[in-house]
Every structure is written in C-alpha cells, then in structure tokens.
Amino acid sequence: MPDARSPDTLQPVHPVTTSATHAEERVQRSLFGEILDWMLVPLLLLWPISIAITYVVAKMIANQPFDQALDDSVMVLSQQVIETNGKVATRLNGPARDFLRADDVDNVYYLITDTRGQIIEGDRDLVIPPENAQDDSTHPGTIQHRDAILHGTDVRVAYVYVDLRSVAEVNATGVEKIAPRTALVQVAETLEKRARLANAIIKGVILPQFLILPIVLALIWFALSRGLSPLSELQQRIRARRPDDLSPIEAGQVPEEISPLVRSLNDMLERLSLSMQTQKRFIADAAHQMKTPLAGMRMQSELALRQTRQEDIHRSLEQLAKSSESATRLVNQLLSLARAENQSQENTPFVQRDLSEFARSVVQDWVEASFSQRIDLGFEQADQRLPVLCNPLMLRELLGNLIDNALHYTPVEGSVTVRVRAEPQTGAAEFAVLEVEDNGPGIPPAERDHIFHRFYRILDNRSTGSGLGLAIVREIAQQHGAEVTISYNPRSSDPEMPGSLFRVSLHLLKTVEADFR
Length: 517
Prior knowledge:
Pfam families: 2CSK_N, HATPase_c, HisKA. The protein has helices spanning 19-27, 31-78, 94-101, 133-136, 192-227, 229-239, 259-306, 310-346, 355-365, 367-372, 392-409, 469-479; strands at residues 81-84, 87-90, 108-114, 119-122, 144-150, 153-163, 182-190, 351-354, 376-380, 387-390, 415-424, 430-438, 483-487, 500-507. By secondary structure, the chain is an alpha+beta fold. It has a 5-stranded antiparallel β-sheet with strand order 4-3-7-6-5, covered by helices on one side. It has a 5-stranded mixed β-sheet with strand order 9-11-12-14-13. Strands 1-2 form a two-stranded antiparallel sheet. α7 runs antiparallel to α8, α8 (310-346) runs parallel beside α12 and α9 crosses α11.
C-alpha cells in the first residue's frame, strides 16, 4: 500500500484564488457607471413622486372651475328662496328646475330646507346637513363646500345659509311677522367632469414626460461620455508613451478636477525619473570605476601564474589582495552612495537620537581599524544630551565615512578626534555639532568646493581613495538638512601637516519624545 505522502499519490495543486481577490474585482466600478447611477437613481425615484404630485395638483385645478359653477348655481338658487306668511318658499318654476339639472355628464341634485330641517324643495337624499351646521349658520351668505356620497357615488356639495330677515314683512297693524331666521340651500353634482378634466391634465403632463425621458437619458449618456472623454484621452496618451519616457504629463489639456491626479502622476514620474537616473549613474560609475581595478587584478593574477620563484608569486598575490581590497572598498562605497540617494527619495521616517551616545557607538566600531593603522582615535562627548532627528543607518554611514577619510589621510602615529558639542546660533535655534579632526596634510581652500563631488581626488595626494566617501557625506547631510563645513585643524601646530576639521551641524530638537535614546 503506497504511502499517502509518496510521489505516486500527490495530486496537482491548483492555484487558490482568495475570496478577497474576487471581492475586489466585484466592487471595481467604472467612473461612468458610478456617475450614471447617482444621476439616474434619484431621477427614477423622483419621477413617481412627481406623477403623484401632478395628480393631486390636477385634481385641484380641475375642481376650481367646477366649484365656481356649483357656487353660481347655489347663489342663483338662494336668490329664489323667499318668506311668505312666516314660511319658507321658492319662486322656482318648471323650466328653471330643468335648467338647474341640465347636465349631459353629471347628475345634479339640490335641496332647500328651513331652520328646523323641514324640506322645502329638492332631493330628499341631501337632507343630511353638513357638519358644524349650527356654526356655519352664523355666517349666512358664505358658500361652503363638502364631499359626500349620494346613491353610492361621490358628489361635490356646495351649500349656503340664506338670511330671511331681509325679506320679512310688516302687517297692517305695524307688527313684524316672525319668519324663520335662515334657510339652507344645497346643490350637489357627481364628479365625472372633474375626473375627465383631471385625467386630461395628467395625460397632458405625463405623456410628454414619457417622450422626454428617453431623450433626457440619451443626453445624460452623451454628456457623461463627452465629460469623461479627457480621461480616455489621458489614458491613451499615457499608453502611447515609450517605457523610458518619464517626462511630465501636460496638465493644460485636462479638466480642473483631474489636475490634482495629473500633478500627483507628474510628481511620481519625477521621483521615478530621479530613481532611474540614480540607477543609471550607479551602473555607469560602477562600470567606469571597476574597470581599472579588475584589469589590474587580471594582470596581477596572470603575472603570478607566469612566476616561478616563490617570492615573486607571493609578491604578486599580495598585490592582488590589495587590489581586491581596494575594489571591495570601492563597491561598498558605491552601494553606500546609491543607498543614501535612494533614502533621500523614499522619504524614510526619521527618529530621535542622542547625538553624543550615537557618535560614541560609531567611534567604538572604528577603534580596531585605527589601532591596526597605529593612529590614536579619540572621542570627546558633550556635557549634555543632544537630541536630533535622524535616519540612524544613514547618519552612521556619514560619520563612518568621515572617520574613514580621516584615518586614510592621517600619518602613522597621528591622531583623529571625534567631538560632539552644542553650538548656540543667532536667534532661538541651536545646533548639535559633530566634528571630526585629524592632523593629516589638510585640504587646501581651493579644493574644498570640489572634494564633495563623486570620484574627485586631490592630485599628488599620498592616499589612494575612490573619491566617493565625501560625496556620500554630502548626500546624507542634505538628506538631514545639515550643513557640512571644512577648515584646517585649529589645534595643529605643524605647518606641513595642518590637518582637517569637518564640521556637521544638525538641528537640535526642543521637544524630546518619551522613547528618546
């Protein structure tokens, strides 16, 4: 029975796609679709609401003329109500009654009653008085309206209370006859004409919307396509670029809303261009500088192969080892310079450090090298804590290159001193100063503007450096906003060996974090 873990039982493993990846693909939407949704969804939600509002408004508009006609009928009918012998009566005749009910569409009803509710004339089904009739009777002559149901059909009722005291008579004895105070006149009609007019208004408003809506949607689609066309043009312009074209994108042809995006892209392209230039410069420098050491090492190895005497072979191998050490140092400095340039472009976060303790730890790393060269390496610490904001890796590289440079230019039995101190300046600002001094040959003032250039070396100098150490120092100092100055060593008393003093001034922090060290 084969082992479950044997190769015969292994099954091919298929790539596993996480649900998160699918989720990201699902939620990705086009800008065109997003804008279209935000425009169409409110439009489609508001459209039914507008139809409902249109229906209500149409009914109100349709009611106004028919209510006015109903009011006219009530007013004409109320003028036919009189008081005779203390009783309410009407002066309506047959043709007047027919004219009152004349309507080809709706049914018209009317009713006249006295104060006691006694029917004088009309349709008995309208006997039911309106609500608050007693209160309304105190305002005779005011036409009012109400909705009711008659014979199972909705009707609109207009009614008015008629003041009969204005038609009271006085008998021969001069005594006024007591007449009823008021009479109630009601006229009602069904709502067919109103419904027809309301439907006509609604159709006149809604039907054009059905025709206009597709046109509006087409215009929105066209407007969005035209409005977003600069994005498509920008995409095509970027796609048409060569892979090595890192020039800025022209922002004058894009809308104002896209300008921040274009500026961000240009900023990224600029940083990428600087990074590419740094890489190209590094490759060119490495190729140029490594050509001579490698050629020398090849010649020395070939010479060692041709030697027959043990002493000559040993001498050639020693020279080969020195060349190898020099090439290794050159490669390390090239890498340090490239790392320093990359750090300045990557915006690496800085941390707080005590410059005195930091410099002490760096100096300790160089004690063995100075001892092997028989050079006295000293350190003078500040009498106070000097907090600075720095990139510890890069600042260590800076101080290490200054110490290495001093050791290379200092003769045997010489001395190199690293010093940290606080230096008050004009105004409120103070600086933490890092100094490296030696008693070597010094740097003439005419050369001090050039020694920070990469691969620059002073002629007739006894040291064989690569010319990169001080270029690294300048790059890291600029990264920290620090200033590097050079002078002769003021403590040197030998005019032939005036020495050098390198001074790096860093901003001293006023506030210290809790985890400061």
